[in-house]
Amino acid sequence: MGASVIVTPTNKSVTELKGLHLYHADMSNCSMRVRMVLKEKNLPWTSHHLDLRTKEAVTPEYFGIHPKGLVPAFVHDGVVHIESNEIIEYLDETFPDPPLQPDLPEERAEMRDWLRTATEIHLPAVKTLIYTRKIGKVLRKNQEEDLKYRSLQRDPELLAFHAAATSGNGLPQENVDKAEATLFRLFDKVEAELSAHEWLVGEKFSLADISWVPLHFTLIGVDFPFEERYPRITAWADKIRERPSFQEGVLRWCAKF
């Protein structure tokens, strides 16, 4: 992965910002990752919270910061970074104390695989299940809101997803079944990894754990069967829940998904 994805904002006001600024949402699992890393590093940062329920991110001003209108967007001394898993790796490389990546090159490569996988499954698996079971009803758009979103959004995949997910009718069952199958396959793998060592990659808490624990937290909120099927994942998540970074980065903003 290396450096995070950097964009040139059309909203030039953010280029004047000094220090660390995070545009984020309470219930966004991608935002949770970045907030956790900021706390693990004890870095001072300025919050720009966007309420997704009231469509605060669906404005020309915010699309001028993040071209897809997604959260989070992270600004470091006027430079805009997007994509949460790349942001957390950027933070660890820019502020290396305490380190959140494994020392061994093969373990570091494995960690990046976990980050990459979490990114790849976000829309087709995680977001599909969450929107179908919960968020689609909360974020349902009326005609005016739908037209506004379409006027700003240029990404065809997101346009297609939101057209179905926030219509009130839900996504096709075929998509939901495929999402569930993908999640079971991957969490089976996580459970197996945790039977071999304490954390997702070896014996050291890392960005891999930070990337995946918000998925566990939000999927619990839509009744994904962790406790019945995945005892090791449940114990792993309970252990992370006690960390100040989870308390501050997740529960302070979103006590229950």
Strand order of the largest sheet: 1-5-4-2-3
**Which structural class best describes the helix and strand composition?**
alpha+beta
Number of helices, where a helix is a run of at least 4 consecutive DSSP H or I residues: 12
Uncertain parts: none
Percent strand equals 5-15%
Biggest β-sheet strands, sense, barrel: 5 strands, mixed
CATH class of the largest domain: Mainly Alpha
SSE sequence, one letter per element: EEHEHEEHHHHHHHHHH
CA-atom Rg in angstroms = 18 Å
In CATH, the topology of the largest domain is named: Glutathione S-transferase Yfyf (Class Pi), Chain A, domain 2
Secondary-structure arrangement, i.e. CATH architecture of the largest domain: Up-down Bundle
**Mean pLDDT reading:** 94
Alpha-carbon distance between the two ends: 29 Å
Number of strands: 5
Shape call: globular
How many discrete structural domains?
A: 2
Percentage of helical residues?
40-55%
